[in-house]
């Protein structure tokens, strides 16, 4: 095929993917904010990195669980990816050469069907694009597809995250939980909570990511205010972040981090988070259920996925009898927040949603407890709902603030620093 024909084919494929994911966005609207002209430095201006770092080479999983997972505190793990083959082999050129003909998911259309682009076309797009919020590879089935499943052999979950309860129901039944992620500068994920009460870890192989996180007690209307630019990560960081960083209520100020190659960010269950790629990045991320977040996972799973919850509960009887018993203790507990689709992305789906279903998927998981109906005020369910409301207030009162995060980082031996 002639060079001009290949070029034309590439441009048609990218334009088609854009139309499928954002059918109401005109071609010129992809660059109307002209963010690309501002460069990458402005994306880091004044960012104070206050998330603690924990070196897994000098600590163990027990320390991680006691200091961070159990109390629900974000942490950046270092030294967890040194033996990954991905750290050597996941380069843009190598992936283009070896997997160029394979298709990777870059979004969903208005009917919820995946939108795919061949990797060879996407790598070129990544290098050339000046889109404000570019298409973003966020692929949850890569480990199952013959053409690219070898990528799953290039990494392994860090030892801190081996408690993977959904694994008990088998790979075919469990909700989507692992994603291969690739995106150019300015791509990212709008503010959301991960589905089904799960926690997440995100590992960067190359490039840098900027994160903003809020504890579960912060209301949705605070973290998702109306602002210019729509539901795009870069628009949120441009317009919403400066306002929230100066919020009068310190609990409403985002906790920030800049993640670098070889670092793994732990996002606790129920935490709001948004991420923006500062450079062209490659990463892998997984969601997981563990003993630490079991209550939140079970209550959401029971409400939104009753058939799966029954299989999950049965699997716990022999594998984790103490957690099986806990499901009985939670029998009359009120659901935590609305059902959250298990197909939601974990930590970074491309910016704005392309449909109402995709939007609810990415922002699912509101953690406010629901009280019982007026006719059931005296019931055990209503009583438990009131108890959950009290627990939520206590969580909010004790939730880590920006100042708390800075102190935690200092105790971990990493002083807060200004990036840029």
TrEMBL record:
Coiled-coil portions: none
A matching Pfam family: Cupin_8
Keyword Signal set for record: no
SMART domains: JmjC
Biased amino acid composition, Low complexity: 342-386
UniProt region (Disordered), positions on chain: 332-420
InterPro entries registered for this protein in UniProt: Cupin_8 (IPR041667), JmjC_dom (IPR003347), JMJD6_ArgDemeth/LysHydrox (IPR050910)
Domain JmjC: start-end pairs: 146-305
Gene Ontology MF terms in the entry: histone H4R3 demethylase activity; metal ion binding; P-TEFb complex binding
Gene3D superfamilies, per database record: 1.20.1280.270, Cupin
Cofactor(s) listed in the protein's UniProt record: Fe(2+)
Location(s), subcellular: Nucleus
Iron in keyword set: yes
Superkingdom of source: Eukaryota
Keywords: Chromatin regulator, Dioxygenase, Iron, Metal-binding, Nucleus, Oxidoreductase, Transcription, Transcription regulation
GO CC term, one of those recorded: cytoplasm
Family named by the database record: Belongs to the JMJD6 family.
Annotated protein name in UniProt: JmjC domain-containing protein
């Amino acid at each position: 095929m002639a060079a001009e024909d290949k070029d034309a084919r590439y441009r048609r494929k990218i334009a088609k993917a854009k139309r499928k994911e954002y059918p109401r966005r005109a071609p010129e609207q992809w660059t109307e904010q002209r963010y690309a002209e501002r460069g990458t430095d402005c994306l880091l201006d004044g960012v104070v990195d206050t998330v603690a770092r924990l070196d897994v080479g000098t600590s163990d999983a027990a320390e991680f669980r006691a200091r961070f997972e159990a109390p629900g505190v974000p942490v950046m793990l270092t030294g967890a990816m040194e033996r990954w083959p991905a750290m050597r082999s996941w380069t843009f050129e190598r992936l283009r050469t070896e997997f160029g003909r394979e298709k990777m998911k870059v979004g969903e259309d208005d009917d919820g069907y995946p939108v795919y682009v061949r990797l060879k076309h996407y790598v070129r797009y990544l290098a050339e694009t000046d889109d404000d919020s570019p298409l973003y590879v966020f692929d949850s089935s890569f480990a199952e597809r013959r053409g690219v499943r070898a990528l799953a052999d290039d990494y392994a979950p860090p030892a801190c995250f081996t408690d993977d309860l959904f694994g008990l129901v088998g790979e075919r039944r469990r909700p989507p939980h692992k994603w291969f992620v690739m995106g150019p500068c300015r791509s990212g994920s709008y503010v959301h909570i991960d589905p089904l009460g799960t926690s997440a870890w995100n590992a960067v192989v190359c490039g840098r990511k900027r994160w903003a996180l809020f504890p579960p007690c912060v209301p949705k209307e605070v973290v998702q205010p109306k602002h210019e630019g729509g539901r795009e990560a870069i628009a949120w960081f441009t317009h919403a972040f400066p306002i929230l960083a100066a919020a009068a209520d310190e609990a409403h100020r985002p906790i920030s981090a800049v993640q670098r190659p070889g670092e793994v960010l732990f996002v606790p269950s129920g935490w709001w988070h948004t991420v923006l790629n500062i450079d062209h990045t490659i990463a892998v991320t997984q969601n997981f259920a563990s003993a630490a977040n079991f209550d939140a996972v079970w209550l959401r799973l029971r409400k939104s996925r009753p058939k799966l919850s029954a299989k999950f509960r049965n699997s716990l009887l022999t594998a984790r009898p103490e957690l099986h018993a806990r499901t009985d203790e939670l029998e009359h507990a009120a659901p935590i927040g609305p059902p959250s689709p298990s197909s939601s992305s974990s930590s970074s789906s491309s910016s704005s949603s392309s449909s109402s279903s995709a939007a609810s998927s990415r922002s699912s998981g509101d953690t406010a407890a629901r009280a019982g109906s007026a006719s059931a005020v005296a019931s055990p369910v209503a009583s438990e709902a009131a108890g959950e409301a009290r627990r939520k207030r206590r969580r909010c009162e004790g939730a880590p603030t920006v100042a708390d995060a800075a102190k935690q980082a200092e105790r971990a031996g990493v002083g807060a620093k200004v990036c840029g």
